[in-house]
């Protein structure tokens, strides 16, 4: 016989296991909050902007071809900025205790489509250090690119700075807690259905009918102790009344 699960049975399972679902969700939220606020190190971000554009004087005309050339060079510049040729110099100038590879993992370089502006972002445990790395990397790149590619079309558009009360970019405790809440509810619901699936005990006449595939002919009610005592007292009282009536007769 093929088993089908109705919406009523699903809701019944959720109602029966609601305490388990809520407990798992609360545990997930608590763990996420504690880890986010007390164990994860705050990471700050600082950004600077580099403009890729040849300097002009009043006698030189604006060239669309040169703009396209600068745009094509940006992808190459993005790679050069994160290369050891630049980062090793940055490490030496700032006396950083890390390798070029480790520093490269903290730096993100990118630009908008058809834009000559390159965004250089640095993430670090210290907001001040992140700003120093970003500004130093930009200045070293501007200085060294003329030697590497024999061009002079890079200028610093905006320097990185540290804002008062700057908030870290990660972790984001509120987001982590919301995700943990959703995951906790999903895990709790899944566990509730799993426990209900493996629970093969017979709890009602419907369970017996489904298990035996036979109709239920009768039900034996369960009488608790207090009801039993009331019935005994009532029966005793009735017997005494009957005896009294017999003796009187």
Automatic annotation (TrEMBL):
GO MF annotations in UniProt: protein tyrosine kinase activity
The cellular component terms of Gene Ontology attached to this UniProt record, alphabetical and capped at eight, are: plasma membrane
The protein's superkingdom reads Bacteria
The listed locations are:
Cell membrane
Its keywords, alphabetically, are: Cell membrane, Membrane, Transmembrane, Transmembrane helix
Q: Where this protein primarily resides, as one coarse class?
A: membrane
Query: Which InterPro entries does the record associate with it?
Result: Bact_polysacc_biosynth/exp, GNVR, LPS_length_determ_N
**How does the record say this protein sits in the membrane?**
Multi-pass membrane protein
Query: Does the keyword Cell membrane feature in the UniProt annotation?
Result: yes
Q: Where is the signal peptide?
A: none
Domain called Polysaccharide chain length determinant N-terminal: residue spans:
3-94
Bilayer-spanning residue ranges: 18-40, 174-195
Q: Where is the Tyrosine-protein kinase G-rich domain?
A: 140-194
Which Pfam families would you find in this protein's record? GNVR, Wzz
**What family does this chain come from, according to its entry?**
Belongs to the CpsC/CapA family.
The record's PANTHER family line, in alphabetical order, gives: FERRIC ENTEROBACTIN TRANSPORT PROTEIN FEPE, TYROSINE-PROTEIN KINASE
Could you tell me what this protein is called? Capsular biosynthesis protein
- Identify the taxonomic lineage of the organism of origin: Bacteria, Bacillati, Bacillota, Bacilli, Bacillales
């Amino acid at each position: 016989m093929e088993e089908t699960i109705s919406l009523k049975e699903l809701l019944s399972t959720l109602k029966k296991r609601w305490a388990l679902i809520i407990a798992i969700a609360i545990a997930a939220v608590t763990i996420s909050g504690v880890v986010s606020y007390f164990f994860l190190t705050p990471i700050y971000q600082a950004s600077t902007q580099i403009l890729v554009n040849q300097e002009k004087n009043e006698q030189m005309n604006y060239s669309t071809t040169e703009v396209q050339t600068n745009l094509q060079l940006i992808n190459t510049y993005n790679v050069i900025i994160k290369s050891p040729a630049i980062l090793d110099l940055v490490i030496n100038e700032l006396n950083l205790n890390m390798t070029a590879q480790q520093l490269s993992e903290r730096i993100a370089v990118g630009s908008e489509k058809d834009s000559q502006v390159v965004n250089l972002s640095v993430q670090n445990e210290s907001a001040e250090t992140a700003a120093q790395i970003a500004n130093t990397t930009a200045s070293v790149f501007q200085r060294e690119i003329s030697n590497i590619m024999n061009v002079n079309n890079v200028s610093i558009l905006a320097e990185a700075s540290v804002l008062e009360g700057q908030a870290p970019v990660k972790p984001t405790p509120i987001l982590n807690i919301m995700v943990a809440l959703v995951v906790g509810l999903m895990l709790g619901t899944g566990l509730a259905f799993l426990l209900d699936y493996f629970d093969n005990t017979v709890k009602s006449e419907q369970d017996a009918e489904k298990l035996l595939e036979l109709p239920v002919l009768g039900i034996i009610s369960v009488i608790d102790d207090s009801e039993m005592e009331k019935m005994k007292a009532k029966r005793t009282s009735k017997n005494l009344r009957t005896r009294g009536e017999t003796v009187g007769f």
